[in-house]
Amino acid sequence: MNPDTPLQLLGGLTAREFLRDYWQKKPLLVRQAIPDFESPIDADELAGLALEEEVESRLIIEHGERPWELRRGPFAEDAFSQLPERDWTLLVQAVDQFVPEVAELLEHFRFLPSWRIDDVMISFAAPGGSVGPHFDNYDVFLLQGHGKRNWKIGQMCDSTSPLLEHADLRILAGFEETAEWTLEPGDMLYLPPRLAHCGVAVDDCMTYSVGFRAPSAAEVLTHFTDFLAQFLPDEDRYTDADAQPVADPHQIQHDALDRLKSLLAEHMSDERLLLTWFGQFMTEPRYPELVVGPELEEEDLLDGLQQGAILIRNPSARMAWSEVDDDLLLFASGQSRLLPGKLRELLKMICAADALHADNLAPWLADEDGRGLLCQLVKQGSLGFADE
Ligand code: SIN
Ligand code: CO
Fold first, then answer.
1. pLDDT tens digits, residue range 320-340?
2. Model pTM score
3. Does the C-beta of 336 come closer than 6 Å to ligand 1?
């Protein structure tokens, strides 16, 4: 993708301009980011998903049994018929994993790393419906799917910003409005992390939130050090063979800190391990139970493909690749594989994996490493046959 091509999705900005001026910095409103956008699913289908066990959903009712009542799905069939006329919102997480047409929307966001994308959440709101003024710690693109929604943006927030007293929701106690827009289908609002915002449905409306993920510093440190620790033998310890006589045996001297700092630096600076951990961490699936594959022999895979079967990425799988020296790393659903550099084009195809078939896979099926990798990924559930 050419970073200097103007993109309709970004209102004619190029990816380079958007990243330089807006990404993680300031909001951007784009009228008709996707011209004449028609939501691929309607309110009934969204409500249908919220009945399913494996789908995460929430209902927020502003004047419910208590202010801003939160109900969590899965919901019973009759849950929606008993709702008030107005002022409620149904939110369904990761719809891209269940509706291929919703996953296709993500093609518009290929100018950003796919491993930064979290999911496409879709909300349906009755008139007046809102989840209250709040901030998110993530970037989000809010695409209007149906009906109209009024968006207000406010101040930059952080974990010290005052919140309403609420057991489950983080609703801001104060909102300092700086701008307001009404979005129609196809319009889109990009918001950087921590910017206060509040969307209120003007009429029955659906909003698509393309959300991003960024691990917190606390997550990076705890998860990476847990990962590292698996490789460290018990005898690898604090050492002080250079110790000097001490004036006071109860004092921790700064030379002890220097030794600790070099112990940390020695282990934390292993780039190969850092990359391996990061790729695994960022490709961990949201719903691991949806990433399971069949028992399969290489021969079965080859037979299937020869008979016209098509392999696609499991919509619940996450994949990414990287380079280490002359080798490659493939990350698939939380696992990593070190692979020879000759498989570079195959890894790119697998990560994009719209449709892999006997024709485009021909050179790789003739290669033992390529064939083996494809078979492993099907067995792991990261790739699957299109019709299954
Ligand atoms: C919504 O769609 O109602 C909420 C989206 C958001 O503000 O994050
Ligand atoms: Co939000």
1. 999 999 999 999 999 999 999
2. 0.95
3. no
